[in-house]
UniProtKB/TrEMBL annotation:
It comes from Salmonella enterica (Salmonella choleraesuis). This is Thioesterase family protein. InterPro entries: HotDog_dom_sf (IPR029069).
Length: 68
């Protein structure tokens, strides 16, 4: 295997590191659906532990910020 990554390989590696190797992002269950040079699309299943406002069932701000 070559030690030098192509731009496409590096882009894929960065996306995978962000989603699958960061413990908090793994705890959220983030899934990388699409990742390009200037665009990323993440998804996750809403879980009760993610709610910050139980009265209105709104996601916690930390969850929202983590997905931005």
């Amino acid at each position: 295997m070559s030690a030098v990554l192509t731009a496409e390989q590096a882009l894929k590696l960065v996306g995978e590191m962000f989603v699958y190797h960061m413990p908090f992002n793994r705890a959220l269950g983030l899934e990388l659906e699409r990742y390009e040079k200037a665009f990323a699309q993440l998804a996750f299943n809403n879980q009760p532990m993610m709610v910050g406002n139980w009265a209105q069932s709104i996601l916690h701000g930390g969850v929202i910020a983590s997905t931005l």
